[in-house]
Structure formats: C-alpha cells, structure tokens
C-alpha cells in the first residue's frame, strides 16, 4: 500500500515540475516574442 502511495506522489511531483517548466518556457517564448 505504502509503495503505491509513494509512486503516486512521485508521479504527481514529476507532473508539477513538468508543468512549472512548461510555464517558464512559455514565459521565455513570450519575452522573446516581445523583444523581436
């Protein structure tokens, strides 16, 4: 039981990091777009 819970938490954390990186990337793209 605990193992599954840990995996779920890890998966959730990975998705959060992915989402955060995606936001940062989008922000960078927008900044570049404004500069061009």
Please outline what is shown here.
With 36 residues, this protein is mainly alpha-helical. Helix content is 94%, strand content 0%.
Quaternary status: single chain
Alpha-beta content class: mainly alpha
Helix-strand sequence: H
Largest sheet: none
Backbone shape: rod-shaped
Proportion of residues in helical segments: over 70%
The count of β-strands is 0
Low-confidence stretches: none
* Residues in β-strands, percent: under 5%
Query: Count of helical segments?
Result: 1
Mean pLDDT: 78
| Separation, N- and C-terminal Cα atoms | 53 Å
Rg, alpha carbons: 16 Å
SSE layout:
Layout lengths: L1 H34 L1
Walkthrough of the structure:
The chain is mainly α. The longest helix has 34 residues, at 2-35. The mean pLDDT is 78. The chain has one helix at 2-35. It is built from 1 helix and no strands.
Question: Keyphrases for this structure?
Answer:
94% helix, 36 residues, rod-shaped, 1 helix, mainly alpha
